[in-house]
């Protein structure tokens, strides 16, 4: 992450971060910012402001200019009050993080951050900075609490935590930069990226004798017509209905009700890259769920019995997300 402290070389900032980590090693779900957690430094504008004040002061002393001295002390008092207001703009804020729904790898995780005040004061221009460089700005003026979304890029599958979040402000004059580091006990489950191509589902038909046969959708008694789904065989297309309605449709046979699709690790043996295999299986799970059919999933050491619905889909995607990773 690029340097986020004003006028601070990267190696000095790393030392400061190590020092703050030692002071604040624990993670919480709810954090109240106090003086122990709060830091403040002058910005580039603040340093320039101090240099100008010193030049005016030395010039006024050298030329015995009382008006220059008055201006120096007036501006100095204004800068001092600005420092106090910058510090107080973060002091006594209560911050907690909310629950976040799973996303797919490559998407942005939007962690909900709730900010409330413990005293009757306004807190404008509050900013949150994530480890991946995204900034979210919010204000706490008339209301007692506010919510903002902090975006963090999901660069991999598995569980991802928000890491170190920096809350900072330079209100009101921009002469001082006050900040605090936040670490929360929160994480988001990231599913594999679905493959861009659709893959045909593998069906197993269960007959009355208990035997199973791997085949395509059934070819026995015709029972109706349904909407076309990606992966349906051409010889099952309802061509007459398509010609009449100009909409892709597929013939439905009675044996399809006894068929179960399997998302099987062995079906992707021709793919050597594990992440690509998981991506293909992820796409197959999404396609099976969209078609609202019974499907199960088989991974090395894991078998999920056929079912359907959103809960079943998320269960399968969770196993794909955590495959080969610590839970």
UniProtKB/TrEMBL annotation:
The keyword Transmembrane helix applies. Keywords: Membrane, Transmembrane, Transmembrane helix. The chain crosses the membrane at residues 38-61, 67-86. PANTHER family: SLR1927 PROTEIN, SLR1927 PROTEIN-RELATED. This is Uncharacterized protein. It comes from hydrothermal vent metagenome. The lineage of its organism: unclassified sequences, metagenomes, ecological metagenomes.
């Amino acid at each position: 992450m690029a340097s986020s402290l004003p006028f601070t070389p990267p190696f000095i900032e790393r030392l400061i971060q190590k020092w703050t980590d030692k002071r604040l090693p624990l993670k919480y779900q709810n954090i109240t910012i106090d003086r122990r957690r709060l830091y403040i430094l002058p910005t580039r504008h603040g340093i320039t402001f101090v240099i100008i004040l010193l030049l005016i002061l030395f010039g006024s002393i050298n030329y015995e200019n009382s008006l220059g001295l008055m201006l120096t002390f007036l501006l100095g008092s204004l800068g001092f009050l600005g420092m106090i207001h910058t510090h107080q703009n973060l002091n006594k804020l209560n911050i907690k993080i909310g629950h976040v729904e799973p996303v797919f790898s490559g998407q942005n995780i939007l962690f909900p951050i709730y900010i409330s005040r413990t005293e009757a004061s306004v807190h404008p221009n509050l900013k949150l900075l994530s480890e991946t460089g995204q900034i979210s700005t919010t204000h706490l003026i008339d209301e007692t609490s506010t919510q903002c979304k902090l975006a963090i890029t999901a660069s991999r599958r598995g569980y991802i935590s928000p890491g170190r979040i920096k809350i900072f402000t330079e209100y009101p004059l921009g002469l001082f930069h006050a900040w605090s580091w936040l670490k929360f006990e929160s994480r988001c489950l990231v599913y594999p990226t679905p493959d861009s191509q659709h893959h045909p589902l593998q069906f197993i038909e269960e007959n009355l004798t208990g035997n199973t046969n791997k085949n395509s959708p059934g070819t026995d008694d015709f029972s109706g017509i349904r909407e076309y789904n990606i992966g349906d065989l051409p010889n099952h297309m309802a061509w007459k209905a398509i010609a009449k309605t100009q909409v892709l449709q597929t013939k439905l046979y009675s044996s399809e009700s006894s068929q179960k699709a399997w998302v099987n690790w062995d079906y992707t043996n021709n793919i050597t890259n594990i992440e690509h295999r998981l991506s293909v299986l992820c796409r197959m799970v999404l396609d099976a769920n969209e078609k609202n059919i019974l499907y199960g999933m088989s991974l090395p050491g894991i078998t999920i019995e056929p079912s359907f619905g959103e809960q079943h889909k998320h269960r399968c995607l969770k196993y794909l997300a955590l495959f080969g990773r610590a839970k």
